[in-house]
Write a structure and sequence with these properties.
Elements (H helix, E strand, L loop, with lengths): L8 E5 L3 H7 L4 H22 L3 E8 L7 H25 L1 E6 L7 H12 L6 E9 L1 H17 L10 H5 L12 E3 L6
Parallel strand pairs: 1-2, 1-5, 2-4, 3-4
Helix pairs in contact: 1-2, 2-3, 3-4
The structure holds farnesyl diphosphate.
The site of farnesyl diphosphate has 21 residues, from helix 1, helix 2, strand 2 and helix 3.
Length: 187
Amino acid sequence: ETKMAPPQHIAIIMDGNGRWAKQRGLPRTAGHAAGAESFRRIANYCREIGVKYLTVYAFSTENWKRSADEVAGIMRLLRKYLEEALMDMEKNRVCFRFFGDLSKLSPELQKLCRDAEKRSEDYDVQVNFCLNYGGRDEIAAAARSFAADVAAGIHKPEDLTEELFSGYLYSKNVPDPELIIRPSGEK
Ligand code: FPP
């Protein structure tokens, strides 16, 4: 029996929380709470099997359209998760990066994100949290940064290649995921 190497990078689009809760007659927020708990187990498991990067799509730019109650519930879970992760960081040897426009998050949550990013010198797994993340939003942000570098004389427009552009994305320095999981079962 050959032992396969684990993927270097696994990404999870955390959907299906609402449906999971509905099937059990629970409020949607209970589904999000269960999702956050599952994610904690997954992150620890990934460390055990040697996965280096774990990305979770936790909040999209579209998710602000959910009810104020649901958004508040998700933000509360994120805060709790990060507070606990900060306490256990040395033990868990997990470091954090955040992909998305954090400026729309509460100042409190922004500070937790910054603190979590700071304390990550020596780690086994890098968890990338996509928060207020949208693919188009990321492209626009990258294009703005590239345009600024052109204006500053650092690059010429014709310098832009796929490779150079990827250096302006949130995911710079992270290999592409080999496996993308949608827990809802949607493709
Ligand atoms: C989508 O599932 C999930 C969300 C919009 C929020 C997920 C975020 C958290 C649980 C916060 C904490 C996160 C982590 C990783 C610690 P959905 O409710 O749209 O499910 P549905 O498609 O069944 O409605």
